[in-house]
Amino acid sequence: MEYIDRLPSMDLMRSEKMMLAQLIIPVESAHRAVSYLGQLGLLQFRDVSSDPLFYQLPLWFSVYTCYMLVKLVAWERLLNDDKSPFQRTFVNQVKRCAEMSRKLRFFKDQIHKAGLGLSPHPASETDIELEDLEVGLAEHEHELLEMNHNSEKLQKAYNELLEFKMVLQKAGDFLMPDGNHSADHETELDENVHTNNDYADSASLLEQEMQPGLSDQSGVKFVSGVICKSKALRFERMLFRTTRGNMLFNQAPADDPIVDPASNEMVENIVFMVFFSGEQARKKIHKICEAFGANCYPVPEDSIKRRQITRDVLSRLSELETTLEAGLRHRDAALNSIAFQLTKWMNMVRREKAIYDTLNMLNFDVTKKCLVGEGWCPIFAKTMIQDALQRATFDSSSQVGIIFHVMDSIESPPTFFRTNHFTNAYQEIVDAYGVAKYQEANPAVYTVITFPFLFAVMFGDWGHGICLLLGALVLIAREKRLGSQKLSSFMEMLFGGRYVLLLMSLFSIYCGFIYNEFFSVPFHIFGSSAYKCRDATCRYQFVPQMIFLNSLFGYLSLLIIIKWCTGSQADLYHVMIYMFLSPFEDLGENKLFWGQAVIAVPWMLFPKPFILKRLHTERFQGRAYGILGTSDMYSDEEPDSARHPHGEEEFNFSEVFVHQMIHSIEFVLGAVSNTASYLRLWALSLAHSELSTVFYEKVLLLAWGYNNFMIRLVGLAVFAFATAFILLMMETLSAFLHALRLHWVEFQNKFYSGDGYKFKPFSFASLTDEDE
Amino acid sequence: MYGFEAMTFNIHGGYLEAIVRGYRSGLLTAADYNNLCQCETLDDIKMHLSATEYGPYLQNEPSPLHTTTIVEKCTLKLVDEYKHMLTQATEPLSTFLEYITYGHMIDNVVLIVTGTLHERDVQELLEKCHPLGMFDSIATLAVAQNMRELYRLVLVDTPLAPYFSECITSEDLDDMNIEIMRNTLYKAYLEDFYRFCQKLGGATAEIMSDLLAFEADRRAVNITINSIGTELTREDRRKLYSNFGLLYPYGHEELAICEDIDQVRGAMEKYPPYQSIFSKLSYGESQMLDKAFYEEEVKRLCLSFEQQFHYAVFFAYMRLREQEIRNLMWISECVAQNQKSRVHDSVVFIF
């Protein structure tokens, strides 16, 4: 017995022992207590805020303190059956936190837009109160919004001036085409007017019309402005339709793009000038401009006036530019000061929100003086939690201590494995199939070795293994650096599985040695016998020790060993198959020894019901005593005994027997089909070696056959490429997937129910930026 | 090809059908509505919606919320989903999806034209338009003075152009003929959509013809009730009814001559599916008729999800979401105006 006690505890084999604890927290210290528990991160709160059950208090509790007792006389749950989120107690605080995190997101967005970076390390200032932070955030937001508003207004004015300037410049070209522009101008005119094909005529005519002062004579007027380039075509078409073609549309691309203040993007514009005649047309054109969001600017026809206005506009532009820049600098400074603190604030708000969310899971007693909560914690953490609670009481100088006591529960506790860097990845593999039931044997223990081993059986090649090993070692060597930064999803997967990769590579080197394979080149290290093809299917020693499997595959393993030892020529397949087909016939030269297991199946069929029956009888008796013993304690508190829900079941032997029969048949069939599944080990390992042989022989050796440097180089390149991508990456993936399947389907369905749920403690450390 | 959709439907439509069924499972449930109806302020509504699929759309809204913001953001979600589906769709599903928006297009055209007639600001009107019914040159509608111009300047570029053939007149626009234009357009649209679905065949045709027939009949009833006591002649009224549906043609004859709501009721009660709707109403009452029709519609729309391999689920999903947004708008309005007793007047539960 002593020896067993001295053994290291089986942390990974069985999940941590858990207990359900009840917390009774005075209101004044509740916030602090929950925040300390969050720092500790070892208690998983249950949502009891809408629990319709009455709360029972153990007897000793009334003795605990008279003060509390007074309040607890009418200890009763508020009978709200379904509380929606906004009916909970701390809903206002949660709302405030949500509002604050909205502001913080706004700041982050603004900082991002301004191209500034967040300071990665939270500033180590003294802690600020949440209320102060709230006020501060509101101030910052107000300030920032005001600045944005101002700069937007300025930007708009600036844009208008800029557009006006461009219109003025281009208008000059439109109105008085000089020698340089006339040529392309004429074609443009021609296209737009769609009149006769006499260039010279129309051009000169229009030029005449466009002389200053002509407009009042002929009635030709114009509207000029700026419109977004993407809308220009539709705009022109609409103008054409409205005026029935009686207009002239001139356009020129604007010189510089304009910043759209709403979206902060650069927009390409064109400057247009529409010539038309008639008052009716003017109204319509103005309406269309408005509808298309085109900005119109009045351009004087007189060139001197135009120049004067241009000068004016230019000077105002430069003024505005300086104002804009000053505003921008001011804003950047404000944002910088926010950016310095932002990470800290975000963490703080996130924590506060988590605290209030947790507090919402607690429930008030009727007197509204204390909060009651329930939660799961591992037993080893009891003292730590009590410690934290004591500190909370002390720090909030509360008169009444926080009460922490253990309850019993009908619910199955959550599953909590303490893993380390090394075992974590394996535990993940198992959890992906299903989280172990509370205190169920954890397959991850076996998986640590069997998974890489099965992988290696399929991937056995020590050349490839070394490549994998190098990769795994690189990942492990850089563990610290890679762990602290954000990785791409693929890299994160690789990094997460670095220790799996390490063991996989070590085992493939080992298997590669046994197979004598180095990049598909046979290496004669252990002589010529390759244990490959057949025996690979036979390594079932790790399969759970069931009677049937032992009698079949344990027997098979035994046969293998006997074969190795005696050098017999027997064909093991033959033995196995004929064992079922004709159990009593002579096996000829395949006979190894007499009396092969016929007993296996009935063995499996019969004992269990009998054992079960015996066990049940024992348990039944035991429990009857147990109930007698405990009933005194609970009788006054829980009359209808929710904690022992199913009294005593009848033990029905025939039913169990039928069940066992079904199970046996299922098991036998499963064993056969699973054995066939394990054949994939053999198939894949063959495929892998064949594939690498093909690449080696048909590419590398073929290329080497030529006495040409170039061909050899190309051959080498193709070989290297194929090795790296097909053999190392794709084959690794396929072997990995097959190993995964063998574990999930063939291995774990033998014994692993995996219907538990994970322990998710309330912990600040696990609060990530999920809402970003 | 009825009965054989299962063989080929998934080649092009499978992905999107899965998507739309996923979207549908995000619709608010009766429990959600119960919680929403208990809200005290718009912030409570926002908080509750933040736990639903609307969450990301509302989370960055600053706190004093308005009903319009909630509705706008919820509509934005619908529009995003619609756009996603449209970009993934191939023919003929993409055409089918586009057909769904034409109704909104008609409403937007009418909204802008009426607004301009009453000298409202175009930008303000544009904000009120349903985003699904927007088209490029919609703002230019303000320029038009009469139907002919409306068609020639703007609508000739839109998919609505063919529906316009019946209402090109040179009359100046006024409220009356705008309303007639709306109904004529809608009639042409429904008939066109109906023909398109018939052409698609299979379960799509079967289910869509049922849904569209219901829509057409509902419009016929509404036109009748709204035109009672106006100067619209019987022949003109008759012309506005769509030429399909359960009421076509004999029901239409009867509706065309109705002079009060009880006569409408008498005409409709001859049709068993509508009898149940009217039996819920007391005589002379038409207030609750809308809700009764909406409830019936929602029931039919939900049923269309029971079959697979057809396009009607897309139509049904869009309609159900729109109903949901109408519900949210009503609840928000009631909460904002402290009229919580009236919350249940117009909310149609979907599940």
Automatic annotation (TrEMBL), chain A:
Residues 123-157 form a coiled coil. It comes from Salvia splendens. GO terms for biological process: vacuolar acidification. One of its GO terms (cellular component) is vacuolar proton-transporting V-type ATPase, V0 domain. This is V-type proton ATPase subunit a. Essential component of the vacuolar proton pump (V-ATPase), a multimeric enzyme that catalyzes the translocation of protons across the membranes. Required for assembly and activity of the V-ATPase. Belongs to the V-ATPase 116 kDa subunit family. It is a multi-pass membrane protein. It comes from the Eukaryota. GO terms for molecular function: ATPase binding; proton-transporting ATPase activity, rotational mechanism. It is found in: Membrane. The chain crosses the membrane at residues 453-476, 497-515, 547-566, 709-730. Keywords: Coiled coil, Hydrogen ion transport, Ion transport, Membrane, Transmembrane, Transmembrane helix, Transport. Pfam families: V_ATPase_I.
UniProtKB/TrEMBL annotation, chain B:
InterPro entries: ATPase_V0-cplx_csu/dsu, ATPase_V0-cplx_dsu. It is found in: Vacuole membrane. It is a peripheral membrane protein. Its main location: membrane. GO terms for cellular component: proton-transporting V-type ATPase, V0 domain; vacuolar membrane. Keywords: Hydrogen ion transport, Ion transport, Transport. One of its GO terms (molecular function) is proton-transporting ATPase activity, rotational mechanism. The keyword Aminoacyl-tRNA synthetase does not apply. V-ATPase is a heteromultimeric enzyme composed of a peripheral catalytic V1 complex (components A to H) attached to an integral membrane V0 proton pore complex (components: a, c, c'', d and e). Subunit of the V0 complex of vacuolar(H+)-ATPase (V-ATPase), a multisubunit enzyme composed of a peripheral complex (V1) that hydrolyzes ATP and a membrane integral complex (V0) that translocates protons. V-ATPase is responsible for acidifying and maintaining the pH of intracellular compartments and in some cell types, is targeted to the plasma membrane, where it is responsible for acidifying the extracellular environment. Subunit of the integral membrane V0 complex of vacuolar ATPase. Vacuolar ATPase is responsible for acidifying a variety of intracellular compartments in eukaryotic cells, thus providing most of the energy required for transport processes in the vacuolar system. Belongs to the V-ATPase V0D/AC39 subunit family. This is V-type proton ATPase subunit. It comes from Salvia splendens (Scarlet sage).
